[in-house]
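Pilot study result, target chain (428 residues):
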Amino acid sequence: MTSTNPAVPAPRHAAVAATDPEIAALIGAEERLQADTLRMIASENYVSQAVLEATGTVLQNKYSEGYPGRRYYEGQQNIDPVEELARQRAKELFGVDHANVQPYSGSPANLAVYLAFLQPGDTVMGMSLPMGGHLTHGWGVSATGTWFRGVGYGVRRETGRVDLDEVRDLALRERPKLIFCGGTAVPRTIDFAGFAEIAREVGAVLVADVAHIAGLIAGGAHPSPVPHADVVSTTTHKTLRGPRGAMLMCREEHAKAIDRAVFPGLQGGPHNHTTAAIAVALKEAATEDFRAYAHQVVANARALGEQLAARGFDLVSGGTDNHLLLIDLTSKEIGGKPVAQALDRAGIVVNYNSVPFDQRKPFDPSGLRLGTPALTSRGLPAERMATVAEWIDRVVTAARTGDEDTVVKVRAEVAELMTEYPAPGLPV
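Predicted structure:
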């Protein structure tokens, strides 16, 4: 029973615990796990308490098919202003003509772009998945590679970087109607202007998928695609530190096509509680504190890359310009999967990942992908990256030799350090 004494706070998630103790226990376990581990999956972060609260409001109860002022349901007098705030804040933060905040996630947002501009069978060009691209950029196992003709570009073997001359030659040969730039394992600055020049030359629509780097762009730590791309697609979590949602931003000339593609083209009513949380996150992203965070994410990633390189790790492209590091473990004589699993046991959460020109299979690749957004949100400074690199080095060696005692020792050290840097949105 929940206490009625105002001096005694109610248990966290009391209503869930009373209704479904199994789920409440799992939520509590996940809170503890997120509190005492070093979360380094490049696409993960911590949202603020304000964003967390916005996702759990009575806005969940509302259906709102359509757009503000043009709904198919009544009772929208509070919902319309919520969506208008989110749209306006996106426009101001990123400097765009138009913003649609209704896509449920990044993949549906990208599908809406296809629906807005292409017909089935048209050619689309994007970075190949094994080279760091995303499934929805025309890769074969995705619907985008089934319904459309996907053409992939990659990186140069010697540099690990995109060669725009090669991209241009491919575009001139294949004549895509749509070109994606961006990806999920791209550690270097994206040359939006260079891609735009190629798109103009072949008459293609340029889409900048900035799901990973949207927060860095908002905080001024990465160049913006807005002056160059016809459409900007992004998730609202990752470096942007919002809820699990997405946005499509574009020039005014494409606004109607994008809106029609999202609704009624692909989805019904928007998730209004998510829209509210997006609005909160966008307001936070317009602050000086957020700008400092964005620049610190990059500083931490660069410092970590330098520390790992000093310990003999091979970094794809030689380092990073953003939040993300891609490590090729070939020289360490161990695959990415056993290392990722050992790091997880040690309280360092990363994901195994293919590297360009990988000779191993996707489910047992040569690489690790890791990032610094979540640890930066906890306040870890660049000086702490030496400790993080040392832990990773010790665990990689332990994984190769079967030294589980070292893994256990690192786990205790990680948990101890995490007590010094409480995570946003979690109970202390």
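One observation from the pilot: The chain has 16 helices and 15 strands. A full batch analysis is planned for the follow-on phase.
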